[in-house]
Amino acid sequence: MKTIQAYKRAPALENSTWYKGLLISQLAGNSDTDGAFDLVESKMKKGTEPPPHIHDREAELFYILAGEIKVFADGQVFTVVAGESVFLPKKIPHAYLIQSEECHVLALMTPGGFLNAINKINAPARTMEIPSDMETYATVDLTSTMAVFIKYGVRMMSPDEIAEQLPAYAIAH
Fold this sequence. Notes:
This protein has one domain (13-126, 138-172): Jelly Rolls (Sandwich). α1 runs antiparallel to α2 (143-151). 30% of the residues are buried. The mean pLDDT is 94. A hairpin with a 2-residue loop joins β1 (16-19) and β2 (22-28). It is of the alpha+beta class. It contains four helices and twelve strands. This is Quercetin dioxygenase-like cupin family protein.
């Protein structure tokens, strides 16, 4: 068993990946925190958002460093801008749409482990910029992605579920 140790880490090529059009820097993962949480810094652009989904295991907290997102969860719509955060409890259907051209976010997921799913289907970052030549959720067949996610307790919502549980998203999207 690995002994958990104190460390210092910043976004760098060594801990960053490209995933579905996002630049994700892993600041803390499951093995770093003994499963307590994952912490990532993500840089995203409009159009790279994941489809509406539900986490059975993790709660998420997003802190916006730059840009603006609109979050749909639990019958509410939150506009979240730089300097603000939004909390998404586990088992609550949610989605977000990036409102600015780019968005820079710190995401805390607890307990840890969801990054393990992302790390099964990402690619090493070649630069510390948002990838421009990569498929996104909107442009790729999600069958294999959904198969990995379901093993980690994350399920994409069906169009009927979205219309029923996230009607404001269905209208905005």
